[in-house]
Design a protein that fits this description.
It contains 18 helices and four strands. The chain has about 550 residues and is an all-alpha fold. It has two domains: about 400 residues, Growth Hormone, Chain: A (Up-down Bundle); about 70 residues. The strands form two sheets. Strands 1-2 form a two-stranded antiparallel sheet. Strands 3-4 form a two-stranded antiparallel ribbon. Helix 1 packs antiparallel against helix 5.
C-alpha cells in the first residue's frame, strides 16, 4: 500500500482515499488538537470549582452543572454528529465543530452569571460533539489496519496530556486573580484557530453515504438523558422530592429511563437509517468496548471532582498545587498510551484493556485506604501514578477494539456511538458522584459533629450538633454561622470543632465515592475479558 492511498474498515469495503502524496500521519495534528481542547475542558473546570463557587456565590451542585451541562450536550448529540459526518463529510462537520467550540469558549470566558456559564458550556458541548466522532472516523478511514493501533495510540495519549494541561493550566489561571478562571476558557481560542487552519489544509474530503437524519431519535435521546441526569444530579438538592409543577425527582428519573427505552425501540424500527443503527451492537467487541468506555469515563469523572475539592477545601492547597498533585500520574498516562496502542497491533487488545482496569482499581482502593485530612501531599503521588498507568493502558486499545470490527460504511456512526456512550458514562459518573457525595455528607455529619462536640464545654455540645446537622452542605459556604455574643475563646473552639466535623464527614464521603468507582471498574474489567481475541491483520 502506498503512502498516498489508504483504506479503512473491512478489506475491500471502502474506496481508496487520495491524500495527494502525503502520509496518513499528516491528518493527525488538527484531529488531536481539536480532541485535546475537548478533553482539557472535561478536567479544567474541576480545579476552578471553589473559585466559581466564590465568584458566583453558587453551591456545589450548581457549579457541578458547569461540567455536567458540557458533558450532557456532548453525549446527547454525539450519535447525531457521527451520522452527520457520514452524510455531510467528516472534514466539514469537524470544521463546523471547531468554530462552534472556539466561539462558545469565548462566551464562557465573558459569562456574567453561573446560569450564563452553564448555557455557554452547553453550546461548547455541541461543538465538542460535532468534532469527536470525526476524529475516530477519519483515523479509521485513512489509516491502514496495521497502522491504526499506533494512530489510535496517539489519539489516546491526548487524554493523558490533557489531564496534565487541564488542571495545571486551570490552577495557573485561577491563581492569577479573581477573574483568572475566565482564562481557562479563553485559552481555547488560539488553539482553536491553529486547529482550524490545519484542518482546512490537511484533512481530506471523504466520501459520504447517509441521506437520512433521525430527528425523532435526536429528540428522544435528548429528553431521555436530560431527565435522567437532572434527576440524579439534582436529587439531593430537592431532597429527592418535588422539583417543579407535576415533576418530582423520581418521576424525572423513571421518565428518563422510559424515554430512553422508546429511543431504543425507535432505533430498531429504522434499521440502518437510525441515529444509532442497532446492528452495530451485533459486533461483540464493539458492544463490550462501549461498556468499557462508559466505565473508564465514569471513573475519571468520579475521581477528579471529589479529590479536587478534598485537596483544596480540606487540605488547604491552592488550585495550582492541587493540580500539580496529579501531574506525575498524567505524565505516566500520556507516555504509556502510544505504547499501549502499538501493543494492541501485536497482541489482542482485550488483555491490555483488562490490565488497565485492574491497575486503576488497585490505585483507587489504595487511595481510599490512605485518605485522611492529615495525610501529606506526597502520599497522593504513588496511587495517582498507578492510576495514570491504568488509564494509559486503556484508551488506545479500547478505541481500536471499538472500530476494528466495523465496516467502512458505519465508521461515523460507530465512532459516534462509542464516544456518545463513553460520555454518557461521564455524565452519569458526574451525577452519581455528586449525589453520593452530598448524600454521604448529610448522613455522616451528625455523627462527626457528635464526635467533635466532645472537645467543647457541656453547654455548647447539643446546640453545636444541632447547628451542624442543619447546615446546607450544597450551599456556597457549607459552613456553620455562629451567633453574636459568643466569647472569643468559645468561638475559636466551636470553629475548630466545626472544621473537624466537616473534614471527617468529607473524608468518609470521598471514600464512599472511591469505592463506587472501584465497583464500576470491576464491570469494565469483566467486559474487557469477555471480548473476543482480535485477529492480527495480514494485509
Amino acid at each position: 500500500m502506498s503512502s498516498t492511498t489508504t483504506t479503512g474498515g473491512a478489506p475491500g469495503a471502502a474506496p481508496a482515499i487520495d491524500l495527494h502524496g502525503r502520509s496518513p500521519w499528516s491528518v493527525l495534528p488538527p484531529l488531536v488538537l481539536g480532541f485535546f481542547m475537548i478533553m482539557v475542558d472535561t478536567t479544567i473546570v474541576n480545579v476552578a470549582v471553589p473559585s466559581l463557587q466564590h465568584h458566583f456565590d453558587a453551591g456545589v451542585t450548581a457549579v457541578g452543572w458547569v461540567n455536567s451541562a458540557y458533558l450532557l450536550s456532548f453525549a446527547v448529540l454525539m450519535l447525531f454528529a457521527g451520522r452527520l459526518g457520514d452524510r455531510l463529510g467528516n472534514r466539514e462537520v469537524f470544521v463546523a465543530g471547531l468554530v462552534v467550540f472556539t466561539l462558545s469558549s469565548m462566551w464562557c470566558g465573558f459569562a456574567g452569571s453561573i446560569g450564563t456559564l452553564i448555557v455557554a458550556r452547553l453550546v461548547q458541548g455541541v461543538g465538542g460533539a460535532l468534532m469527536t466522532p470525526q476524529t475516530m472516523a477519519v483515523i479509521t478511514r485513512v489509516f491502514p489496519p496495521l497502522k491504526r493501533g499506533a494512530a489510535m495510540g496517539v489519539w489516546g495519549a491526548v487524554a493523558g496530556v490533557a489531564t496534565i494541561a487541564g488542571p495545571v493550566l486551570g490552577g495557573f489561571f485561577v491563581e492569577a486573580g479573581d477573574s483568572g478562571w475566565r482564562w481557562i476558557f479563553f485559552v481555547n481560542v488560539p488553539i482553536g484557530v491553529v486547529a482550524l487552519l490545519l484542518s482546512l489544509r490537511f484533512i481530506p474530503h471523504l466520501p459520504t453515504r447517509v441521506a437520512y437524519f433521525d430527528w425523532v431519535g435526536v429528540v428522544l435521546s435528548g429528553i431521555g438523558f436530560f431527565a435522567l441526569i437532572f434527576g440524579l444530579q439534582e436529587g439531593e438538592s430537592y431532597h429527592w422530592g418535588h422539583v417543579w409543577g407535576p415533576f418530582s425527582v423520581w418521576s424525572l428519573i423513571i421518565g428518563g429511563v422510559v424515554v430512553i427505552g422508546l429511543f431504543v425501540w425507535w432505533q430498531s424500527r429504522l434499521g440502518d437509517r437510525a441515529l444509532l443503527p442497532l446492528r452495530l451492537f451485533h459486533v461483540r467487541n464493539f458492544s463490550l468496548a462501549n461498556v468499557t468506555g462508559m466505565a473508564v469515563t465514569f471513573s475519571m469523572i468520579g475521581i477528579f471532582f471529589p479529590l479536587t475539592i478534598f485537596l483544596q477545601s480540606i487540605m488547604g492547597l491552592s488550585p495550582l498545587h492541587a493540580a500539580l498533585v496529579n501531574l506525575p500520574g498524567s505524565l505516566v498516562s500520556g507516555i504509556v498510551a502510544p505504547f499501549a496502542g502499538r501493543l494492541s497491533d501485536r497482541i489482542s487488545g482485550k488483555w491490555v484493556v483488562a490490565t488497565g482496569f485492574l491497575v486503576i482499581g488497585v490505585a483507587m482502593g489504595w487511595l481510599a485506604l490512605i485518605l485522611d485530612p492529615a495525610m501529606s501531599v506526597g502520599a497522593f503521588i504513588a496511587p495517582m501514578c498507578v492510576f495514570g498507568l491504568g488509564t494509559g493502558l486503556i484508551f488506545s486499545p479500547m478505541a481500536n477494539l471499538a472500530t476494528s470490527g466495523l465496516d467502512h460504511s458505519t465508521a461515523g456512526a460507530g465512532a459516534g456511538a462509542f464516544n456518545a456512550n463513553r460520555q454518557v458514562g461521564g455524565v452519569i459518573g458526574s451525577a452519581a458522584i455528586i449525589a453520593l457525595l452530598t448524600a454521604r455528607l448529610a448522613s455522616l455529619m451528625p455523627t462527626e459533629a457528635a464526635k467533635a462536640s466532645l472537645s467543647l464545654p457541656e453547654e455548647y455540645r447539643a446546640p453545636f450538633v444541632e447547628a451542624l446537622s442543619k447546615v446546607d452542605l450544597t450551599a456556597s459556604s457549607g459552613g456553620m454561622t455562629l451567633p453574636d455574643g459568643i466569647p472569643d475563646s468559645a468561638r475559636a473552639a466551636l470553629e475548630a470543632a466545626g472544621n473537624q466535623a466537616f473534614h471527617g464527614a468529607f473524608q468518609g464521603a470521598v471514600q464512599s465515592t472511591l469505592l463506587l468507582v472501584v465497583g464500576v471498574l470491576v464491570v469494565g474489567c469483566l467486559s474487557a475479558l469477555a471480548m473476543r481475541r482480535t485477529v492480527k491483520h495480514t494485509h
